[in-house]
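Checklist before submission:
- one chain only
- standard amino acids only
- sequence pasted in full

Submission:
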Amino acid sequence: MIKIVLDTNVVVSALLKADSTPELIVSMIREKQMLLCLSKGIFEEYSEVLGRDKFKGLNRKKVKELLSKLKKDAIWVDPHTSVDAIKADPTDNKFLECALKARADFLITGNTRHFSFNKFHDILITTPSEFLHIMAKMLFE
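Returned file contents:
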């Protein structure tokens, strides 16, 4: 099964915009069509960001249910190898560390400024739309 790491911006976008590409990816995780890889640091960031005042308009019950489902169904890893690939925002390195430890296939992010490279070791780094394009291509080959 395909293993992925989601940047926080993808989770936020999934909750903000129904029927969006990020929402479809999160739905695929919820339906167990792929495996989400998480670390403690990533999950804490999801929770912290979604709890910010600017997201108070989100349905709190929906946020809590999503976080609970992701927490329950994820592959949890405890990365011990530090990565220093992202200089502009070193806290984003936790996503690469998790992906490495979990041997994830993809890291999906909307942050192309910090994740300006498309591969890290064997992990493909894609935007949500690029990811779905790759998945569709794989299905029809």
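Reviewer check: Strands lie at 3-6, 35-38, 75-76, 106-108, 119-120, 123-126.
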